[in-house]
Design goal:
This protein is an alpha/beta fold and 296 residues long. The chain has nine helices and eight strands. It folds into two domains: 2-139 and 271-292, Rossmann fold, CATH 3.40.50; 143-262, Rossmann fold, CATH 3.40.50.1400. It is 48% helix and 15% strand. Helix 2 (46-61) packs parallel to helix 9 (270-292).
């Protein structure tokens, strides 16, 4: 009897979960994971491989389409595939550092999450989405991200009280968006400083995609920051970037000649997968509650 009850419980749990995620078409949910992607012609980049590895456990648990970049045709194909498999709801999860990334903002326009501003309507045409689509935030200053950054700093640390950690992000295209991006990074920096017992923790962006004058000033300011801090201690530069094989190489090139130790990007790290799972599970629970309606 005990074994029967155990099997019955497992079956009922599966039936409950399946009815919401994989069962009736009107309740099925598709997961759209969005990543920047660095895919050279004819090969899969190191960056992409790390992202694919982080997403694989999610693909084993949910109906997932992973999209690299923001090509309208590729994005449309991914959404259409989810809908063809019965997805009435689609949850889009941007695997990006900041929701203030111009790429994330363009994806919001393309997916119809945010109306395209008049000045960009000739440039951007939203794709066709029949399902009820919702989009989460990027990883930002999520506690799981904070733990990753802390670990990356500790990997290259030798004497925290004499070391200053500088978190460096890619940055958006404008100074206004950069303010919002940096606000999130300051949360990470505060956590790293306190948890690691570091002398200080600072933040900066390199603005690689911005106009030349803005980018040059950002790099100049970062170099000056490192030079000044290194006069009275050791500098640890931790790139707040998703995966290796991307612009962290460009960052190192721009910092040539300076004295500092360089950390690793977020991946590979299990917390990225944990964050993806948490974003999905949180949305599914919220939608489930909406389907049930208010408590009597």
């Amino acid at each position: 009897m005990g074994r029967y009850l155990m099997h019955l419980t497992v079956f009922l749990l599966f039936l409950f979960n399946a009815s919401f995620v994989l069962g009736n078409p009107e309740k099925k949910v598709g997961i759209l994971i969005l990543a920047r992607g660095i895919d050279p012609p004819g090969e899969v980049s190191v960056w992409d491989r790390h992202v694919m590895a982080a997403v694989k456990p999610i693909q084993e648990a949910y109906d997932v389409e992973l999209v690299f970049g923001m090509d309208e045709k590729v994005l449309q194909e991914a959404v259409s595939k989810l809908e063809a498999r019965g997805a009435a709801k689609i949850l889009a999860v941007p695997l990006y550092i900041s929701s203030h990334s111009p790429v994330v903002q363009k994806l919001e326009y393309l997916l119809g999450v945010t109306p395209v501003p008049p000045e960009r309507q000739k440039e951007i045409k939203p794709i066709t989405v029949k399902a009820d689509l919702h989009m989460t935030h990027a990883i930002e200053h999520n506690p799981l991200a904070a733990l990753i950054v802390f670990e990356r700093a500790m990997e290259i640390s030798l004497n925290p009280p004499q070391e200053t950690v500088i978190l460096v992000g890619h940055g958006p295209l404008t100074k206004v968006s950069e303010t919002m991006w940096l606000r999130s990074m300051w949360v990470l920096a505060s956590f790293v400083e306190e948890e690691g017992g570091f002398k200080d923790a600072l933040v900066a962006t390199v603005m690689f995609g911005a106009p030349p004058d803005i980018k040059e000033k950002a790099i100049k300011d970062l170099r000056a920051m490192i030079e000044e801090v290194s006069k009275n201690g050791t500098v640890l530069v931790v790139p707040c970037m998703i995966a290796p094989g991307g612009i962290e190489g460009m960052l190192e090139e721009q910092l040539r000649g300076l004295t500092y130790r360089f950390g690793r990007p977020y991946l590979p790290h299990v917390n990225v997968t944990k964050w993806l799972r948490a974003e999905i599970q949180g949305s599914l629970k919220r939608w489930e509650k909406e389907l049930k309606g208010p408590n009597p």
